[in-house]
Amino acid sequence: MHISTSSIFITLLMALGMILLFYVLIQRKKTHLLFRTDLLILLAMIIWGRLFLPVEFPFTITIAFSALMNPLQALLNIAVFGHRFGEVIMILWCVGMIATALHSLYMLKRMFDLQKIIQKKSEVFHISDFMKVNPKNDYPVWKTDLIEVPMVLGWQKVILLPNASYSQKEIEHILSHELQHILNHDIWIKQLMNLLTIVYWWFLPVYWLKNQVQIVLEMRVDEKVTRSMTQEKMLDYVSTLVEMNEKITKNVLQKKLRFSSSFFFAENRNVLSYRVQYLLESKQKKKTNKGILLFLFMLPVVTNLVIFEPYHENAPGTEGTWSEQEMRERGYLIHHQDGTYTFCIDGQQATIQNIKDPVFENIKVIEEE
């Protein structure tokens, strides 16, 4: 396995295609009859893994694509302030990654500060004070005037409730929903998405993915909470969802909470229609289509199957030269005892002046005895 400009490029291309597929599956409500939410979570994890492994595998097939890769290679080789443009891009990428990570740490600190404020001004209960629950899942419930809608404080496994009056049916639906977020360990999935936006801060499709995953997490919770319900009880649950969204108002603290939304699970008006549609159709479709499952399991292999490389056919001055692919496959380096290097390929040798040149990365090195 090795990483290169071509492997990063094909990774971004494949990730974009999978993110668009993910988006279509969510946005087109007719497709809700074809899948369950676990399939979408799995697809999100495949995209996450693909982006964090932008490498070329031993089974990857190299395809010469001069029309696209030659101009890209030429662009990255342009000199900018004494450096290759590709090197400048990598520096900017790393600087942006550090800045985004620092911003995320700042948001994490804000979240802990808000938690302290809420805790001081809350009345503390447990789920068992409102409904029957397995003792091992009897998590704290904080009732406070500082929030307007129920939510989960992810890291602390605490359910936050507004100081409002609820019917017994409503409180059971609300607590069941928020408890399921905790049981699903959704906070970790959200943090994986946050990490993705830190590393690929400049790649806009990852933000689309992050927003769509939030919808899927809510849909999955609804699916699990209502799994054993009758049709009548499920409609009661849907009614509670609608009523809670109608009660949403915005106060000062909630505007602060939005800055730390990565660490909270709150209701969102924008996802309600998808959740309701999915629930109403969930009784019609119990399992994901087997063909879709097969396709999904093949995605990690399919998306790593090919890689595009530049190709210069009969270009002036290329006689007797080798491509980077040929150098990796047929060449090797000899590391001499005096610290110098010699590159060997097809019976020919050349002394290396700059061993740090990227062209010599991932080439086998033999130590001189």
TrEMBL record:
Identify this protein by name.
Methicillin resistance mecR1 protein
Listed transmembrane segments: 6-26, 33-53, 59-81, 88-106, 187-209, 291-308
On the tree of life, the source organism's domain of life is Bacteria
Keyword annotations for this protein, in alphabetical order, are: Membrane, Transmembrane, Transmembrane helix
InterPro entries, alphabetized: Beta-lactam_resp_regulator (IPR052173), Peptidase_M56 (IPR008756)
| Gene giving rise to this polypeptide | mecR1
Q: Where is the Peptidase M56 domain?
A: 87-250
This chain's source organism reads Faecalicoccus pleomorphus
Q: Which Pfam families match?
A: Peptidase_M56 (PF05569)
